[in-house]
Here is the input.
Amino acid sequence: MKQPILDFNLKEISFYLKEHKFPAFSGRQIFSWIYKKGIFDFNQMSNLSKQLRGFLDRNLYILSFVLLEKKVSSDGTQKFVFKLSDGGSIESVLIPTAGRLSACISTQAGCKFACRFCASGALGWRRDLKPSEIIEQVIHLNHVSGKRINNLIFMGVGEPFDNYENVLKAIRILNSAYSFNIGARKITISSCGLLAGIKKLAEENLQVELSISLHATDNQTRTLLMPVNKQYPIEELLTACRSYYKKTKRQVTFEYILIKGINSDLKQARKLVSLLSGLDAKVNLIPVNSFRKEFYAPDKSEAASFKGLLLKAGIPVTVRRERGADIEAACGQLRLKNLA
Here is the structure.
């Protein structure tokens, strides 16, 4: 059975070639064709020997996705649905802004954690994505855009820390000079708050951005919105984030979905200020884009008041601009489409 070459880092592909009696340095040549030149057919890699090209073609493959659907939003956002080799599917989003091209990447087919405001867990979890399947999303989006993606957000379908090793391997490959050389500080991992993942990331010596989906200021409300809170309550989550900051000295971003009548009033804003006291934190406010009819975003004045209170307390805060809602590509709208 053929193996995906995108699962290999440079050290691994060099060892693989050497093990099969081919020059180890050819690994760098192969990766240059794939990542730098956008060539995905081994037979077109003209500086490799005929014997090596034949060996690669018999034993490895580069791409495996089938594009099932592409939608383009009125704001320029593009959503892609890819069919996986086992018949499942994932979604990825390309978000152009002034001076930046961002890709929102999925890490699992489906999600186990079933946050009530998010469509990704509606059909459950199917499986983890391999490093190659994570990287292939970036390759396809790069190819479609005709430009280099310079900002990666692991905030698509799935929980990155539930697929920790595969996600981190993909990030290290995408960050490397032989691949796309995407700066670590331009890569964001978003988690619903799996403590083991936060602790492990603190030890990685990798300057990626950590974003935590908080969305509430008390356990009762957070459990209502995010069942994972039963296992990892707010107090333990904030303790892990403080330990992460102490170890890395890196600011933590907290995602906070604003839902009218649930977590968007000034009382909740004051409680959020108290929760984040003493922590180098930034807050990203997100008016809800829920697929559930019972959740509604607050009006602009309520969101502005919430933001203003945080700013007055000295907490950096942004309100995320809605992108791609008309094609179900906004935050909380991506989902698994179970095709098999």
